[in-house]
């Protein structure tokens, strides 16, 4: 799918800024509690994560090293009828940032096809290199190395597992949260985590971002056990709290980003923010945003504190939620301006049928970050994900059935 070259490199460069911002915010306990407490009152899922975060903070965090594998998603915003396309952030994911391996393979497939079937407007040098798996595994390997130096060691995800073994000789043990509670053990003094005879250096969460991942209290008990451990968590409960939509909205408020990063970084980050609005807090701004969204529902999207796609509310559904909700329940949501993405003529292949249609795209950049307290050990943008969808579809989630994996061709 055509994508502006300058914008592509801009959002890749900004990924380091977002890596740093997530980490800085995660270390400010007061900030997270101040802005998530209102959400937690009516959102049990967010309340449980905030409780895990506070419980471990009260007990004393045993592992100061944090590993972040983030993905920041953007859409092009057509503010002036195509004269100036600006990248606007849809969200930042701090847990289970999916599709790195499959995106890498799609990029390789498209490069192969372009080189195999020459076309005047399709040059392989305009397909940017995309190797997120090696970057993600490098971050995990560095985390494993950092843990050991302390002396305290699905189809998409299988590629990460195989790469870690082939290139770093690091074995991977896969387990559900319920299996963790049944088989894992935590040393009382050192907080070393062991499972099936193996000491665990890094815990990488491929689940835990949805209430569906916690059908019983056992799963929550397992998540707390892992957070208490000396293993390096990806993400920590703090990082996951930073990924809440509420924190995204608060950081967009004047002066908030500037509390955590320098002026130049704040300016780059702020350039990507769309309009984001609080709900239900009794402020004039929140009341005004709610009233305008009810009067002009096509201009906004209502977002809960959820990941995974298919959770947002649009137009009449959004209007109904706003009219029926009270201040307490509405604080579990944020309002966001609809990003006016330009549509591009495209062809989708579904059920062996080619469908000519207008399409829009969403570009995500993968960031890997490793730090020991204030000391940054590694921070890079390691690859990208492009998803395309029919322009008439509101959502872009691939796993949720709305979009398809694609590749950018730069112009």
TrEMBL record:
Sites where the protein binds Mg(2+): 91, 93, 307
Keyword Ligase: yes
InterPro entries cross-referenced by the UniProt entry: Glutathione_synthase (IPR005615), Glutathione_synthase_a-hlx (IPR014042), Glutathione_synthase_C_euk (IPR014709), Glutathione_synthase_N_euk (IPR014049), GSH-S_sub-bd_sf (IPR037013), GSH_synth_subst-bd (IPR004887), PreATP-grasp_dom_sf (IPR016185)
Pathway(s) of this molecule: Sulfur metabolism; glutathione biosynthesis; glutathione from L-cysteine and L-glutamate: step 2/2
GO molecular function per UniProt: ATP binding; glutathione binding; glutathione synthase activity; magnesium ion binding
Pfam families linked: GSH_synth_ATP, GSH_synthase
UniProt-listed SUPFAM superfamilies: Glutathione synthetase ATP-binding domain-like (SSF56059), PreATP-grasp domain (SSF52440)
Recorded GO CC terms: cytosol
Residues annotated as binding substrate: 71, 157, 387
CC cofactor note: Binds 1 Mg(2+) ion per subunit.
EC primary class: ligase
Signal peptide annotation: none
EC number: 6.3.2.3
Segments forming domain Glutathione synthase substrate-binding: 149-240
Source taxon at top rank: Eukaryota
Record's keyword terms, sorted: ATP-binding, Glutathione biosynthesis, Ligase, Magnesium, Metal-binding, Nucleotide-binding
Family: Belongs to the eukaryotic GSH synthase family.
Name recorded for this polypeptide: Glutathione synthetase
Taxonomy of the source species: Eukaryota, Cryptophyceae, Pyrenomonadales, Geminigeraceae, Guillardia
């Amino acid at each position: 799918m055509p994508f502006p070259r300058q914008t592509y490199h801009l959002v890749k460069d900004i990924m380091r800024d977002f890596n740093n911002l997530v980490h800085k915010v995660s270390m400010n306990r007061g900030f997270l509690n101040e802005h998530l407490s209102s959400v937690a009152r009516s959102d049990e899922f967010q309340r449980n994560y905030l409780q895990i975060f506070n419980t471990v903070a009260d007990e004393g965090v045993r592992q100061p090293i944090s590993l972040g594998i983030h993905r920041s998603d953007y859409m092009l915003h057509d503010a002036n009828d195509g004269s100036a396309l600006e990248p606007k952030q849809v969200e930042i994911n701090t847990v289970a940032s999916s599709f790195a391996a499959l995106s890498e393979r799609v990029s390789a497939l498209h490069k192969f096809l372009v080189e195999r079937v020459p076309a005047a407007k399709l040059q392989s040098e305009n397909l940017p290199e995309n190797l997120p798996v090696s970057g993600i595994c490098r971050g995990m390997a560095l985390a494993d190395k950092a843990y050991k130096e302390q002396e305290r060691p699905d189809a998409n995800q299988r590629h990460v597992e195989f790469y870690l073994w082939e290139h770093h000789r690091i074995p991977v043990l896969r387990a559900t949260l319920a299996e963790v509670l049944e088989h894992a053990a935590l040393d009382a003094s050192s907080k070393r985590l062991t499972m099936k005879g193996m000491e665990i250096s890094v815990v990488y969460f491929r689940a835990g971002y949805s209430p569906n991942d916690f059908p019983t209290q056992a799963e929550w008990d397992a998540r707390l056990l892992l957070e208490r451990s000396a293993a390096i968590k990806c993400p920590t409960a703090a990082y996951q709290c930073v990924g809440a939509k509420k924190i995204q909205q608060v950081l967009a408020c004047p002066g908030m980003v500037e509390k955590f990063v320098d002026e130049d970084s704040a300016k780059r980050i702020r350039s990507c923010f769309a309009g984001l609005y609080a709900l239900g807090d009794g402020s004039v701004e929140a009341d005004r945003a709610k009233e305008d969204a009810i009067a002009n529902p096509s201009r906004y999207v209502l977002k809960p504190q959820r990941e995974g796609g298919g959770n947002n509310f649009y137009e009449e559904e959004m209007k109904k939620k706003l009219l029926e909700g009270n201040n307490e329940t509405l604080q579990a949501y944020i309002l966001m301006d609809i990003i006016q993405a330009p549509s591009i003529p495209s062809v989708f292949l579904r059920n062996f049928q080619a469908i000519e249609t207008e399409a829009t795209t969403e570009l995500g950049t993968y960031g890997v970050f490793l730090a020991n307290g204030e000391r940054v050990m590694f921070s890079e943008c390691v690859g990208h994900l492009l998803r395309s969808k029919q322009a008439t579809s509101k959502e872009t989630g691939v796993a949720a059935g709305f979009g398809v994996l694609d590749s950018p061709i730069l112009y």
